[in-house]
Amino acid sequence: MITVVVADDEPMVCAHLRTILGSSGDIEVVAQAQDGAEAVEAVVRHRPAVVLMDLRMPGVDGLAAIERIAALPEPPAMVALTTFDADTYVIRALRAGASGFLVKSTPPEDLIGLVRVAADGHTVLSPSAARRLVTLSSDTRERSDDARRRTACLTERERDVLSGLGEGLSNADIANKLHLAEATVKSYVSRMLVKLGCTNRTQAGLLAHEAGLVG
Q1: Mean pLDDT in each 10-residue stretch from start to end of the chain (215 residues)?
Q2: d(CA 15, CA 6)
Q3: What is the DSSP letter of 211?
Q4: How many CA atoms lie within 13 A of 122 on its CB side?
Q5: Angle at which helices 201-210 and 88-96 pack, to 10 degrees?
Q6: In three state form, how does the secondary structure of 116-128 look?
Q7: Do the beta carbons of residue 17 and residue 79 sit within 8 Å?
Q8: 4 - beta bridge partners?
Q9: Fewer C-beta within 10 Å: the chain N or C terminus?
Q10: For position 215, what pLDDT does the model report?
């Protein structure tokens, strides 16, 4: 059973998400929170696999909550919930430790599958959305220069794998593209996260865009 905490200051949204996810048979919403402070408490209490976190909430907002949860031992996968897919808060959330984001208009039939993807440790972020986000995030020369410095330590093959992360590809997709075994790609990803100081695949993917490794 995939356990989920939903954090949103609109009770109707929480109820909607609970109904959709509860219909899956393998996903259970174990707690709801109306602000970031409640979300952190719920995570500590229930240790969910996934947190769906609204970014704009009164009091402690979703961004602050993501930062606090990311600092916990073995934090859950955190997916930011937004109304618009170009929300600049999303960039900060991904850098803080979120593994992806969903717009609240995501079709119910897609939501269940995306939560499963997040629970498996993968990025919940479409390539088109990633490109729009990178447009927002790459607004300074300093950040691009820093990304190039951080990725300079990678081998050519590691850079190829990192580029795949930037495209939003799964390990299996990267393996097929580079003619490698999926286990080999998984090993590359784990090693690169340590080298680059990234918390998850999403942060590494954004870094790939900022370093100019994605066409």
Answers
A1: 94 91 93 95 96 90 92 91 68 81 80 88 64 56 82 93 87 92 93 88 84 82
A2: 9
A3: T
A4: 19
A5: 120
A6: HHHHCCCCECCHH
A7: no
A8: 29, 50
A9: C
A10: 67
Answer left, alpha or beta for residue 197, where phi above 0 means left and psi between -120 and 50 means alpha. left
Q: What is the pLDDT of residue 209?
A: 83
As a dihedral over the C-alpha atoms of residue 198, residue 200, residue 205, residue 207, rounded to 10 degrees, the angle is -20
Ramachandran assignment for 15, one of left (phi > 0), alpha (psi -120 to 50 degrees), beta (any other): alpha
Q: Please, which contacts does 190-196 make with residues 24 or more away whose CB atoms are closer than 8 Å?
A: 191/158, 192/154, 192/158, 192/161, 192/162, 195/153, 195/154, 195/158, 196/150, 196/151, 196/154, 196/162
Supply the pLDDT for residue 140.
Answer: 58
For residue 170, give the nearest of 153, 152, 185, 154 by alpha carbon.
Answer: 185
Residue 112's identity, in one-letter code, is I
**Cβ-based neighbour number of residue 47 at 10 Å:** 14
Per-position DSSP letters for 151-178, written without gaps between them? HTTS-HHHHHHHHHHHTT--HHHHHHHH
Alpha carbons within 13 A on the beta-carbon side of 104: 19
Whether this prediction's pTM lies above 0.90 is answered by: no
**Angle, helices 127-137/201-210, rounded to nearest 10 degrees:** 60
pLDDT at 203: 81
Look at residue 199 in the predicted model and tell me its pLDDT: 80
Tokens of 126: 């479409």
Q: Nearest CA to 200 among 112, 8, 69?
A: 69
From 214, 91, 207, 215, select the one nearest 152 (Cα to Cα): 207
